[in-house]
């Protein structure tokens, strides 16, 4: 049951980012203004289309509440605790996302993290991934914004790969499994994160050119 409410928690983050993205684009670009009288479109159909997954999750939640309200309550409390623990991370990333979207020129991102940045951009991505705190999926909206601004997918792949190091857990791992093992393991992860980014760029570029 906790797993189920974890999924609701993940979709809650997804909805939050969807709303943030909608507000940004409608404010700066006017891309999401809905004309209720445009060609007789039904706004309710648009809502169902955009939030079909969330609606299905809500229906399942209501059914589970009828079947066993106690387990649903325990799962909900667990999911809410996880959500609030990540709340500051989500807000911080949303703030960074907005700053990048408004103030950082596209050519700057492309120069630092784009295909033309080469190994330098891949290295920056691996460093950022090493320093990431929290689940990687929380950073996906930020990665999406960086790609829209010109960052290469290889850099994003490297960042997600390097996230496996989890720098904040290195002391704990060293104390339990031994420092030689932890240091060697993390060096391997860091090395293969860079290699994976280079391979990803190579494969993606060749696929895009065909």
Description:
With 210 residues, the chain is an all-alpha fold. It has 2 domains: 1-85, no CATH class; 104-210, no CATH class. It has helices spanning 2-28, 43-50, 52-67, 69-85, 87-103, 106-113, 119-131, 140-148, 153-162, 170-177, 179-209. Helix 3 (52-67) crosses helix 4 and helix 5 (87-103) packs parallel to helix 8 (140-148). The model is unreliable at 1-17 and 30-38 (pLDDT under 50).
Order of helices and strands: HHHHHHHHHHH
Report the principal-axis shape: globular
Uncertain segments: 1-17, 30-38
Between the first and last Cα atoms, what is the distance in angstroms?
46 Å
Extended strand count:
0
Rg calculated over all Cα atoms: 21 Å
Structural class category: mainly alpha
Structural domain tally: 2
Give the % helix: over 70%
Q: Count helical runs.
A: 11
Give the rounded overall mean pLDDT: 76
Keywords: Cell membrane, Membrane, Transmembrane, Transmembrane helix
Organism: candidate division WOR-3 bacterium
Pfam families: ArsP_1
InterPro entries: DUF318
In short:
The chain is an all-alpha fold and 210 residues long.
């Amino acid at each position: 049951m906790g797993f189920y409410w974890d999924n609701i928690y993940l979709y809650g983050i997804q909805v939050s980012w969807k709303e943030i993205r909608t507000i940004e684009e409608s404010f700066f670009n006017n891309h999401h203004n809905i004309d209720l009288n445009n060609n007789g479109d039904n706004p309710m159909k648009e809502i169902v289309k955009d939030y079909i997954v969330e609606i299905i999750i809500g229906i399942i939640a209501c059914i589970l509440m009828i079947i066993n309200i106690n387990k649903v309550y325990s799962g909900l409390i667990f999911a809410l605790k996880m959500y609030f623990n990540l709340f500051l991370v989500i807000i911080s990333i949303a703030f960074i996302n907005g700053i990048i979207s408004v103030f950082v020129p596209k050519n700057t991102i492309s120069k630092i993290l784009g295909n033309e940045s080469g190994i330098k951009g891949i290295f920056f991505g691996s460093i950022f991934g090493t320093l990431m705190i929290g689940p990687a999926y929380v950073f996906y909206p930020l990665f999406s914004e960086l790609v829209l601004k010109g960052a290469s997918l290889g850099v994003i792949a490297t960042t997600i790969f390097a996230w496996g190091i989890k720098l904040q857990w290195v002391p704990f791992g060293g104390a339990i499994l031994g420092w030689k093992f932890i240091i060697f393991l993390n060096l391997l992860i860091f090395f293969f994160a860079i290699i994976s980014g280079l391979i990803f760029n190579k494969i993606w570029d060749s696929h895009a050119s065909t």
